[in-house]
Amino acid sequence: MTDPREPKQAKGVFIKTYGCQMNVYDSERMRDVLRPLGYAPVDSADEADLVVLNTCHIREKATEKVYSELGQLKLTKQARGGNLTIAVAGCVAQAEGAEIMRRQPAVDLVLGPQSYHKLPEMIARASRAVGDRLETEFETLEKFDALPKTREADGPTAFLSVQEGCDKFCTFCVVPYTRGAELSRPVDDIAMEARSLAAQGVREITLLGQNVNAFHGAAPALTNEADWTLGQLVRHIAKVGGIERIRYTTSHPRDMDDDLIAAHGDVPEMMPFLHLPVQSGSDNILKAMNRGHTADEYREIIRKVREARPDIAIASDFIVGFPGESDADFEATMQLVRDVDYAIAYSFKYSARPGTPAADMFGQVPEEVKDARLQQLQQLLREQQTAFNRSKIGQTVPVLITGKGRNPGQAHGRSPWLQAVHFELPQDHAMTIPDLKGRIVDVRVIDASLNSLSGELVGEVAEMREAAL
Ligand code: SAH
Ligand code: SF4
Ligand code: F3S
């Protein structure tokens, strides 16, 4: 007799994730919700009974990708006589709702980012073809409260959502509409999730939020204190046994307070990396974007952060061709990049998003001007990124081993500055890469390129092997 607690039959779920780390986290949580229903993750739509596209609405291209993927899935579904459930989740689901099912009738379910805990109920409704197949309500903390309390960790690094939504309303951005108002989780809940991850071997946690440094979650119940800031949260999570590295993303310059900056200097677990998007170096454009700070105020924040942690790697996002951007405005962005000297940065051509204020502004910039500016900016950013990586050559750096490298006998890991590191293990190394996963080892950097460092193992593990000989 089968155990009634066991799922009746294994089914496959394939979740395809687009967009930001928040979606990566949410996709993991959807897998957690589906596991008790007997859904095991599979690697492609071909093996799946349920496909979830976890979508991104940030730029037009991101949205269009979803519809072309849905066109493919429709063919798969037809070939199987309809035996495939197709769900659209994420920010396109939130922004376009029922329109998605009108545009692509093969879609069975549409659910926004606050509704993932309702996935089981919706799948049941879809299979009976009754009830609502659309969930795009915002229900404050319900999502986090209703998701399973435990998580399955996948390797030594993990994302942990601490804040969702955004109240900044930058004039180009859809996030305040797709993710709703800013909302922080209580510190006790976050600490519980961190402990559960640590117990499963996670060593590095990235605290996530659309506007993570605006965090203001309920203080731990025992303290009787008012809401805590991100700086306080970081100090608290640093005490969780097993958590050796902490990062956070993405921050807004306006919420970069002194305590958080100080934490970069005095919390050993805090990694020397700060992703602080600036978007533009022109005060006129920053104003039109509603960013709420000037280019010099941003420079001053960077100066303070570097004072607290001199080796910190600074990262950013840029938009070129925002409405009204002149050659002089663009030059101001180039100058800011020269002044700050970034370790890495992401840059995009402005994409007009329906419903956002900037979409209707005068002075939309022609595509070819955007193309030329993007190329110029990216050329400079690539030079800075390569120079930053090369500055580590000759140094011995602590690397968190995350898995196998590109070649046999090679391991792959992460430096404190979020660089990918490949290094050789000694040929007759007694330990296999799975044994080493999650360890932090010393690697001497021998070479560096645009996207990674390469080096050789020194210290602890190499010594262990020599001692054994
Ligand atoms: N919350 C984060 C990131 C938001 S989206 C922040 O405030 O920085 C990630 C990046 O996408 C943004 O930083 C911005 O550079 C880019 N982006 C957002 N909307 C865009 C648009 N309409 N066109 C082009 N790029 C955009
Ligand atoms: Fe979008 Fe601005 Fe909020 Fe970032 S801060 S999510 S760019 S509105
Ligand atoms: Fe995209 Fe939504 Fe993230 S629009 S960038 S997936 S918050």
Automatic annotation (TrEMBL):
<feature type="binding site">
    <location>
        <position position="91"/>
    </location>
    <ligand>
        <name>[4Fe-4S] cluster 1</name>
    </ligand>
</feature>
<dbReference type="InterPro" id="IPR038135">
    <property type="entry name" value="Methylthiotransferase_N_sf"/>
</dbReference>
<dbReference type="GO" id="GO:0035597">
    <property type="term" value="F:tRNA-2-methylthio-N(6)-dimethylallyladenosine(37) synthase activity"/>
</dbReference>
<feature type="binding site">
    <location>
        <position position="170"/>
    </location>
    <ligand>
        <name>[4Fe-4S] cluster 2</name>
    </ligand>
</feature>
<dbReference type="GO" id="GO:0051539">
    <property type="term" value="F:4 iron, 4 sulfur cluster binding"/>
</dbReference>
<dbReference type="Pfam" id="PF04055">
    <property type="entry name" value="Radical_SAM"/>
</dbReference>
<dbReference type="GO" id="GO:0005829">
    <property type="term" value="C:cytosol"/>
</dbReference>
<keyword id="KW-0004">4Fe-4S</keyword>
<feature type="domain" description="MTTase N-terminal">
    <location>
        <begin position="11"/>
        <end position="128"/>
    </location>
</feature>
<dbReference type="GO" id="GO:0046872">
    <property type="term" value="F:metal ion binding"/>
</dbReference>
<keyword id="KW-0819">tRNA processing</keyword>
<dbReference type="InterPro" id="IPR020612">
    <property type="entry name" value="Methylthiotransferase_CS"/>
</dbReference>
<feature type="binding site">
    <location>
        <position position="56"/>
    </location>
    <ligand>
        <name>[4Fe-4S] cluster 1</name>
    </ligand>
</feature>
<keyword id="KW-0411">Iron-sulfur</keyword>
<feature type="binding site">
    <location>
        <position position="20"/>
    </location>
    <ligand>
        <name>[4Fe-4S] cluster 1</name>
    </ligand>
</feature>
<comment type="similarity">
    <text>Belongs to the methylthiotransferase family. MiaB subfamily.</text>
</comment>
<keyword id="KW-0949">S-adenosyl-L-methionine</keyword>
<feature type="domain" description="TRAM">
    <location>
        <begin position="390"/>
        <end position="459"/>
    </location>
</feature>
<keyword id="KW-0808">Transferase</keyword>
<dbReference type="InterPro" id="IPR006638">
    <property type="entry name" value="Elp3/MiaA/NifB-like_rSAM"/>
</dbReference>
<keyword id="KW-0963">Cytoplasm</keyword>
<keyword id="KW-0479">Metal-binding</keyword>
<dbReference type="InterPro" id="IPR013848">
    <property type="entry name" value="Methylthiotransferase_N"/>
</dbReference>
<dbReference type="InterPro" id="IPR007197">
    <property type="entry name" value="rSAM"/>
</dbReference>
<feature type="binding site">
    <location>
        <position position="173"/>
    </location>
    <ligand>
        <name>[4Fe-4S] cluster 2</name>
    </ligand>
</feature>
<feature type="domain" description="Radical SAM core">
    <location>
        <begin position="152"/>
        <end position="387"/>
    </location>
</feature>
<protein>
    <recommendedName>
        <fullName>tRNA-2-methylthio-N(6)-dimethylallyladenosine synthase</fullName>
        <ecNumber>2.8.4.3</ecNumber>
    </recommendedName>
</protein>
<dbReference type="Pfam" id="PF01938">
    <property type="entry name" value="TRAM"/>
</dbReference>
<comment type="subunit">
    <text>Monomer.</text>
</comment>
<dbReference type="InterPro" id="IPR002792">
    <property type="entry name" value="TRAM_dom"/>
</dbReference>
<feature type="binding site">
    <location>
        <position position="166"/>
    </location>
    <ligand>
        <name>[4Fe-4S] cluster 2</name>
    </ligand>
</feature>
<dbReference type="InterPro" id="IPR058240">
    <property type="entry name" value="rSAM_sf"/>
</dbReference>
<dbReference type="InterPro" id="IPR006463">
    <property type="entry name" value="MiaB_methiolase"/>
</dbReference>
<dbReference type="Pfam" id="PF00919">
    <property type="entry name" value="UPF0004"/>
</dbReference>
<dbReference type="InterPro" id="IPR023404">
    <property type="entry name" value="rSAM_horseshoe"/>
</dbReference>
<dbReference type="InterPro" id="IPR005839">
    <property type="entry name" value="Methylthiotransferase"/>
</dbReference>
<keyword id="KW-0408">Iron</keyword>
<comment type="function">
    <text>Catalyzes the methylthiolation of N6-(dimethylallyl)adenosine (i(6)A), leading to the formation of 2-methylthio-N6-(dimethylallyl)adenosine (ms(2)i(6)A) at position 37 in tRNAs that read codons beginning with uridine.</text>
</comment>
